[in-house]
Amino acid sequence: MASLIQVGLSYALKKKLESLFFVWALVRSSISVEVKRMFTTFLRRMIPFLNPYHVIEIHEHHREHMVHNKLYSMANAYLSDVCSHGANKLHAEVRSLSGKPFLTIAEEEEVVDTFRGAKLWWFASSCKPKYSTKSCNGEERFYRLTFHKKYRKLVEQEYLTHIFHEGREILARNRQRKLFTNIHSRGTGYSWTCVAFEHPATFDTLALDPATKRDIIEDLMSFREGKDYYKKIGKVWKRGYLLYGPPGTGKSTMIAAIANFLEYDVYDLELSAIKNNMELKKIFMETSSKSVIVVEDIDCSLNLTGKRVTKNKNDKNEAEAVTEGYDNANTVTLSGLLNSIDGLWSACEDEKIIIFTTNHVDKLDPALIRRGRMDMHIEMSYCTFEAFKVFARNYLEIETHHLFGTIEKLLLEVNVSPADVAEGLMSRSLRNADVDACLANLVEVLNLAKEDMNK
Ligand SMILES: Nc1ncnc2c1ncn2[C@@H]1O[C@H](COP(=O)(O)OP(=O)(O)OP(=O)(O)O)[C@@H](O)[C@H]1O
Ligand SMILES: [Mg+2]
Question: What is an example of a GO molecular function annotated in this UniProt entry (predicted)?
Answer without folding.
Answer: ATP binding
